Amino acid sequence: MDTIVFDNKFLGRNNRRPRTVALTEVGLRDGIQIESRRIPTQIKLELVDSLVAAGVKHLQVTAFVNPERVPQMADAEALVRRLPATPGVEFSGLVLNLAGVTRAQDAGLRSIEVSVSVSNTHSLKNAGVSRERAAEMAVEMVSLAKAGGLKVRAGIQCAFGCVYEGAVPPDRVVELAAAYAGAGADELALSDTTGMGTPLAVAELLPAVAAVAGDRPLALHLHDTRGLGLVNLMQALAVGITHFDTSFGGMGGCPFVAGAAGNIATEDTVYLLSALGIDTGIDIRGVSGCSARMERFLEKPLPGKLYRLGKKD
Predict the structure, then answer these.
(1) Most buried of 13, 212, 265, 283, CB within 10 angstroms?
(2) 20-57 b/e (C-beta count within 10 Å ≥ 16 → b)
(3) pLDDT digits (tens, 9 = 90+) for 146-175
(4) Per the domain annotation, does 6 fall within a domain?
(5) What are the CA-CA distances from residue 175 to residues 84, 181, 279 (Å)?
(6) What is the number of alpha carbons within 13 Å of residue 137 lying toward its C-beta?
């Protein structure tokens, strides 16, 4: 059997590890979108306050999508209009089509994530259009948002594979990333929507995307469906990625991916990064309080590990 060697030079004495890493909290969007019990807007706003108090500076708070398909996002406009004015904190929303861009802007958001899939089957399930049409729409969305003065993060779903179609050709991901860059996106993000990413795939794909991203930051959105979320984060650090999406308590999953698990847990990620000497500015206990509250509300344990250590019986 061949020996597999991972790039872990940043763990050495002459290390390359960053001093800081930025985390975008997506629990209020990705984290709750698959939950059947509707979460009131007021509770979402209280969670926003708690997460900001815990030091979270980037929060994706909602998605401007069809509420009949994703009922948890039915209050998108109402939620955004009640967000606190907090200097130094960025609130964003996910959009999947041109109407979503307009809705987000009209609600008052100044930052959005445009996101489409490079899997045809997933694109049809998630957005109702083919991947080719989705890619065309993505460029149109970025252009519309930039014309309106919005900050745009451009996301690529199923970048590391699809449960319906299997492996996704890396060239397909790179091509879409280049199109995003050409349209003027401020940041790029690769999403392991189905949790099929591996350290080797991360090591191979991220440099290829970075090559077409120019000076745009590149983020990684990791689902932990197969238990490799934090392992993939470690490999991403080794190739220079310093921005990741996380979800308090490890909540989340895609409604249109069978068996999808949540994102890597915010608390677990902060703990790991802290153990490596990397600062996130986020207080684990503060975030854990949000996870414990959601556990009580949903009446079920969450996938994350660290938040449980602070629970009171």
Answers:
(1) 265
(2) ebbbbbbbbbbbbbbbeeebeeeebbebbebbbebbbb
(3) 999 999 999 999 999 998 899 999 999 999
(4) no
(5) 38, 10, 33
(6) 23
- Which residues have CB under 8 Å from 242's CB, separation 6+? 18, 20, 21, 22, 217
C-alpha closest to that of 265 among 38, 31, 91, 66: 31
Q: How many domains are there within the chain? A: 1
Place of tokens 């800081």: 20
Q: What domain range includes position 288?
A: 14-308
User: What was the pLDDT predicted at 4?
Assistant: 40
Distance between CA 178 and CA 166 in Å, rounded? 23
Q: What are phi and psi of 194, to 5 degrees?
A: -100, 5
Per DSSP, the residues of 252-285 read ---TTSTT---BPBHHHHHHHHHHTT-B----HH
Contact at 8 Å (CB) between 105 and 148? Answer: yes
Q: Is 254 tagged catalytic?
A: yes
The string of pLDDT tens digits covering residues 70-108 is: 999 999 999 999 999 999 999 999 999 999 999 999 999
Active-site residue, from 158, 162, 254, 290: 254
Q: Is the pTM of this model over 0.85?
A: yes
Q: Which residues are paired to 219 by β-bridges?
A: 189
| DSSP SS3 for 58 | strand
